């Protein structure tokens, strides 16, 4: 049988190119296996069948852990088989053990493009442009075309927030399908709603700045000013303000400054220079 074009044997020499760089083009499913592992051999034909069945929607990368021990150690592989899914250079999900085909399909479908994704992407653009009516129409079309797509529910949360119903959006957010529980976009949206809700009825930034000038210990003004900065996209300024508040007043709003910093980290995807720098500074305050 000819080697599938969707299955690649990966070593330390080509891991960067195939898995890390390749996952920016399409998801890469990495199967960590060993020749002595019976469950690995049971899972292999299932993964190979699905790689061909999905016809290039993902690449299956196979790592022989006996020959590539350094790779296995780097990714913390302790049980075989372990299967990790990479997207945009990062591990986004994994499973261990020889799952049946149906469960592997469910695992893949949580991360692979779905039929309604194109409509949802258009709806996102319309929401960004302020055209909420047309965005709502496209979200309903996506629901009709692709009723099993969990991201339709996420789009509804975003639309509800854009319409100004923040409490309604927060309620919908808590009822999202379980498969979205660890989605970075959900974490980011939760952070946005946190700050938007805090600013309902809040003074303008110029007034908060005046309050702080008159009383540097005005914790409410400091927090609300940081919230304004978050929604304006000034994440560094917001983090500086929240860190200063955290140092001065951990009791304000049930540790609101620390929780606010964590929410900003989520908004930034949990990675990047800004997150690394401020997470380290936050740790020095905590410990």
TrEMBL record:
Family matches, as InterPro entries: Thioredoxin, Thioredoxin-like_sf, Thioredoxin_CS, Thioredoxin_domain, TPR-like_helical_dom_sf
Q: Which Pfam families match?
A: Thioredoxin, TPR_19, TPR_20
**Annotated Gene Ontology cellular component terms:** cytoplasm
Keywords for the protein's UniProt record, in alphabetical order: Disulfide bond, Electron transport, Redox-active center, Transport
Record flagged with keyword Electron transport: yes
GO biological process terms on file: response to stress
Instruction: Pinpoint the Thioredoxin domain residues.
Output: 6-113
Specify the domain of life of the species encoding this protein.
Bacteria
Please give the Gene Ontology molecular function terms for this protein.
Answer: protein-disulfide reductase activity
Q: Which Gene3D superfamilies match?
A: Glutaredoxin, Tetratricopeptide repeat domain
Q: What protein family does this chain belong to?
A: Belongs to the thioredoxin family.
- Protein name as catalogued: Thioredoxin
Origin organism lineage: Bacteria, Pseudomonadati, Pseudomonadota, Gammaproteobacteria, Chromatiales
